[in-house]
Amino acid sequence: MKKFIALSILGLLIMAFSATVYAQPKLTFVASGYIEVVTILERNRTVGANGNFATFWPGNGFYPPPFLPASTTGAWNRTASYWEERARLNFSFIMDKSLSGTVGFELDSGRMGEGSVYTGMGAWNTDQTVVEIMYAYITAALPYIGIPIPMTVRAGIQPLATRPNVFLYTDGPAITGTLNIAPALIGITWAKPFEGKDATADDVDVYGLTASAKFGTISVGAFGYYYNMKTYPFDVFSTTYGVTNQNSSDMFWVGLNSDGKIGPIDYNFDAVMDTGKVKHRGNYAVPLPAGANSKVKYRGFAGQLKVTFPWEKFAFGALGMYATGADLNKTDRYGIPGTSTANALNGYTRKVGAYVIPPGSEEWAIWGEAMVFNNNYISGTALPPTMSPLGQYGNNMTRGAIGGTWVAQAFASVSPVPWYKVTLKGMYIGDTTKHGNTLGDAVKLGFPAYRDDKAIGWEFDLLNDIKIYNNLTWSFGGGILFAGDALAQYNALVNKDPGNPWVIATKLRYDF
Q1: What is the CATH number of the domain that holds 284?
Q2: Which candidate, 504, 496, 431, places its Cα nearest to that of 58?
């Protein structure tokens, strides 16, 4: 009888839970993404992905790039033309508002027609291995467990974005959480950018905390990130147990931001500071040179304010940006202990004052306020090989798009009809690096001391957007940078000024 009662209760429980399971909403499948085709005609602007148009522009290390423009390929002051393609495909599997899974893919070309020896989407034999897995994560709303706060958790490889135009955007393995404490939204992040030997503490962990709140038409926010890098740069490590990696690093980034509308004015504000150190491990197999500093200190700052005044079919605005530059008497190009300063007579690297972004951040591709000086939504970018000692921005801190520069910009746009918009921009770009230049590497008498110039130049851009269909847009535009002294290069024992960099680009984009 007891067995019968127990089995009856068990059966009722199974039926109850089965009813709950089968009562779940039907799975909804959602696909989204885009396909874009870009054409570019330019001079002295980018570094080709396949290396056959290597110019100095932009350097994107902390300081002047180590590769001279004309001595390697002869492409300096020559006109280049090419076209590229990119596609992103995102698939979401939504059970209800509390549970979903997302998988995302990216397909990238280098230069179209780059040849079958490359694996990019632009190869003539198009059956290449080009599909990149960008996202694969689960998003779930946590059930209440005695805390009356809506909580959401996301786990897996996912986009990580915190003020991406000035600080952080990357994709990678992480667990993130969101707490909705009205009117505040709190975000928590733990990410794993690098894992070395499993049985040795040589990995990298990222811990982040963000907070934002909206008050009427104004939102304010703050963030703090700690990068505990037991190996730095990420890919310079030993696979042998008992052998210590060369460097470690503890870095912090803190920021304040605000967006909103004050009267008729729209605005965006950001302020970010980096601070920390890169430390040479004393028991590393290769000791530091005599007199070298075992620690290199980092402290930089960046701030930006953008205001826009919309008026009927017009919009007028201004942007100001300032990011600290390095002192080349105190550091080499990459801020590693034991290396000589860029101006070698000043001893060993000891302090990096340039504003830097975390390893792997694609802020350099998102800042997007200039067609020539940096990246923009039409032509995008080709990743320069000079962003780090090994040409891998993903493993090192770099100055990103703005470190070592300042910008004063005015812009205006008009949409005479709903399907067309034209924008004009004018800006002055200055250099904030001390005892040297951020992008150029001209020298002065008494080599190896770098020349210290202040003007990167004046840039003017014209951008057009035509909406052919609701989901199909054709954009085209051009820009020219009237080069200042801070872009001069030291080559063949003389300083040489580049021809004014310029670009003309188009983009056809289908969003779905």
Answers
A1: 2.40.160
A2: 431
Q: Is 321 helix (H, G, I), strand (E, B) or coil?
A: strand
- Domain check: are 198 and 53 in the same one? yes
Task: List the Cα angle 435/439/441 in 5-degree steps.
Answer: 60
Please state the φ and ψ torsions of residue 9, each to the nearest 5 degrees.
Answer: -65, -45
Alpha-carbon distance values, 282 to 170, 201, 447, 454, 486 (Å) = 32, 16, 33, 39, 38
Q: Are residues 115 and 213 in the same domain?
A: no
Per the DSSP assignment, residues forming a β-bridge with 465 are 421, 475
Question: What's the number of CA atoms in the CB half-sphere (13 Å) around residue 208?
Answer: 24
Would you say 379 and 485 are in contact if contact means Cβ atoms under 8 Å apart? no
Query: For 182-217, where are the E strands, in sequence order?
Result: 184-194, 204-215
Looking at the predicted structure, is the pLDDT value of residue 33 above 90? yes
Question: Would you state the structure tokens that stand for residue 235, as one six-digit string?
Answer: 């890919």
Residue 17: φ, ψ to 5°:
-70, -35
Residues 386, 60: contact at Cβ < 8 Å? yes
Chain-centre distance for alpha carbon 7: 60
d(CA 50, CA 385) in angstroms, rounded, equals 10
pLDDT band per the 50, 70, 90 thresholds, residue 117: low
* 493-496: Cβ within 8 A, 24+ apart: 495/442, 495/443, 495/451, 496/70
- What residue has token string 């939102």? 219
Return the higher-pLDDT residue of 306 and 400.
306
Query: Rounded CA gap, 412 and 427, in Å?
Result: 12
Q: Contact 335/357 with Cβ under 8 angstroms?
A: no
Upstream peptide bond of 58 is cis (omega within 30 degrees of 0): yes
Cα atoms found within 13 Å of the Cα of residue 262, Cβ hemisphere only: 8
User: Do residues 202 and 259 both lie within one domain?
Assistant: yes
Among 96, 115, 141, give the residue marking a domain's end: 141
Question: What would the pLDDT profile of 169-219 be if each residue is shown by its tens digit?
Answer: 999 999 999 999 989 999 999 999 999 888 888 899 999 999 999 999 999
C-alpha–C-alpha distance, residues 300 and 305, integer Å: 18
Domain boundary, last residue among 89, 123, 141: 141
Q: Which domain holds residue 310?
A: 44-77+142-511
Residue, of 125 and 477, whose pLDDT is higher: 477
Whether pLDDT at 476 is above 90:
yes
Distance between CA 161 and CA 274 in Å, rounded? 17
> Alpha-carbon distance 159 to 192, whole Å?
13
Q: For 474-505, b where at least 16 C-beta lie within 10 A, e where not — what string?
A: ebbbbbbbebbbbbbbbbeeeebebebbbbbb
